[in-house]
Amino acid sequence: MDVRIERTRRSLQEALFDLARDRPLEELTVADIAQRAGVNRSSFYQHYADKETLLADALDTAVERAGAFLPETITAPDGPQRALIAYLRHIDERADVYRRVLGRHGSAAVAARLRDRIEAVAREGLARMGAQAFEGVPPDVVSAGVAGSALGVIETWLARDPRPSIEIAAEWVWRVLVGVGDALEQPQESRAPLARPGVGSVLRGPTPFGPT
Fold this sequence. Notes:
Blueprint: H1 3-20, H2 30-37, H3 41-47, H4 51-66, H5 79-93, H6 95-102, H7 108-129, H8 139-159, H9 166-185, H10 199-204
Helix pairs in contact: 1-2, 1-4, 4-7, 5-9, 7-8, 8-9
């Protein structure tokens, strides 16, 4: 990418981060963002269609810089938890922004990108496992349920005051998601409805976010 283009996009992204910490996204205008970034409106539209696309790109860029990716293929038993902590640390450092964009009046573009990312991880994990527990349920439905659960936990964590630690949030997310893994590990006849997953099962067996 051209250095000038990258510099302009970075200026716009940082300007939006600065403004979004103090004001709701819906109150911000393209003119506000352009002025803070030191560019004109036409320069903004040369790079982004609207402010929501800009914010989604800004958060994606921040994730890449932080190396805070969601768990994919991880071999260490505690790898998924470590990956979640890294990702949640990225969210925690921008909690004011994420709280606004994931809230009831937030950014559909940002929420959709995050949901798509989690769904992709879930689909890959389920495909590797060849899971039978969801036989008859389309994979996209299962992965959508996983993504919805994860986002719900993250949004609730961000809304708490005081906000619990990153480690606690990671455990909450993992405990909710590992319920799927527990269901897959147990024989059908021994599965108890609404059984609470244990930490041991997180480390013991495969889940949609762990290795086969």
